[in-house]
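1st attempt posting a full record on here, be nice pls
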Amino acid sequence: SATWHDGESVTASDVAFTFELLKDKTVASPLAPSFAGVQQVKALDEKTVEFTLSEPYPAFLTALTLGILPEHVWGSVPRDQIRLAETNVKPVGSGPYEFKRIIKESNGFISRYELERYPGYYGNTTYIKEIAFQFYSDYEGAGGALEALRTKKILGLSFVPALYRDKIPTQHVDLHTLQVPQYTALFFNLEGESPVTDKNVRKGLELAINKFKILQDTLADEGTVLEGPVLPGFPGYTEAKVTGANPEEANTVLDKAWPRVNVDDYKKVLIADYIREHLTQAATSTSSTPALVTNDAATEAAAKAAVDEILPPAQLFYRKNSAQKYLTVRLITADTAEYRQAAALLAGYWQDIGVRTDITYVSARDIGRIALKNRDYDVLLYGVIVGSDPDQFPFWHSSQVSYPGLNLSGYTNTKVDELLSKIRQTTDFAALNTLYIDFQKLLRDDVPAIFLYSPHYTYALDNSVKGFAVERITQPADRFANITEWYVKNKSTF
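the predicted structure (as tokens):
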């Protein structure tokens, strides 16, 4: 029977406890929406769990594939402190490997994480005794991950961006291309006073971009271009019929409510704003010596220099609506090579139709806290892992608008809500396929997001490691799905 790594038995009570935690709003788990219809979870005996649902949910069994927490370890941790608990980094699990030790640098950065074979594992005994995860702050450089792979200090690299593909030492490293249920999209913030609340703006922005070029330049074509959130292999998927950029049609759409303004006129507005802000700061200075508040030649020269620095020289015109607001979108994305490249391309496409783009890059580890929680963006360039369950409810139902819900656009449509609820009660594949197609038609018409591509996942593994046999994953950790069959081939010595 299964036991936790501290020797305690894994029981149905642990399962019930895990789902009780998951549904607790204090914990704010992103998995909670998938189990919103679960009324009760009850342990009938040590090996039997009963789930009571408020309505039929065919994909429920698929959704149950998640990690279970030991109640005797986590039960004493206050709910509001769960994210800070030490057991997050020193876990007690029940898998083939158990925690051995963690190594942190003086600044708190975790540089190494070590696991060792768990002798009490209920499944097949692993061939490899110990596994260590080494963490790097960068791919390149003397202390980077690529150098470590080249010199065999490490035997695998979790993910290889297209940018670094040709730097992999293929003489001793195999590259495995895995299918992953993930898509990258531009999510529009439909709440507040953002210019993207105007559907014509969203349509114009979509018409202006070339998705194929973005996929080619960011991922070297290692992915699939999309026109909706349903991925290949799932009900309702249809091959994208999108074409290249169409700036002419985009301009036609935007010209109706956002007339063009020439560059010089726009610069005059920005220069005036700069000078006004400069004078206001000077007038409110807390210095004991009163500031001299003047609009002199030096201030004007500084304003012109500042404006020239922020405006792209290739942009030929801008746009302004009847409320005298200029069309500027704030795009936020993770600070990775892939998203930097994509964001630069997007800004270029949009400047061709008179839209100014202000880009903010946030570290990948902080984007959830900074961007997702507060929804502080006009446009969010972000990757979503759908998982093995095709259910789109967590991402597009109106009940999931507020954090930690995953409706990143704040999208509400009663017809979409009805379809998503009906999908959860449908078991017939043909009917399910039709429902998902109808759902995507509504989404395409409303344009709450621009769906760009579904990337492939490239995993690098030294060819001395044998037994790897994974082709499709639902999340990066699934590359270890058959870890018990891995072994390292050593040369014989005499």
